Fold:
Amino acid sequence: MMEVVDPADIRAFVNRNWRLVEQSKVEHWAEWKKGKTADEILQIAADLRNHIARIKPDWPTDRERAADIAEHARFSELLSRAAPHFAR
Structure:
């Protein structure tokens, strides 16, 4: 049986300070990352990928993989263009 949702709760959720929520998330994850090594973060990423592969074995689809590769290529190009501006 579903519980009745209080309309005031919905209004409070919709009207919350979303910028503050986002800033709080940014600060939380920045602090979390400070305590992790690159190897630990890469292991977490591998664990997440393995988890999704178990629950959705068809992921990523060929289309998703192609879109991902295109995005990596686009980002690589942006980094290449920006690199000269940061050379020491």
Summary: The chain has two domains: 18-57, 61-88. The chain is about 75% helix and 0% strand. Helices lie at 7-14, 18-34, 38-55, 62-82. The first helix runs from residue 7 to 14.
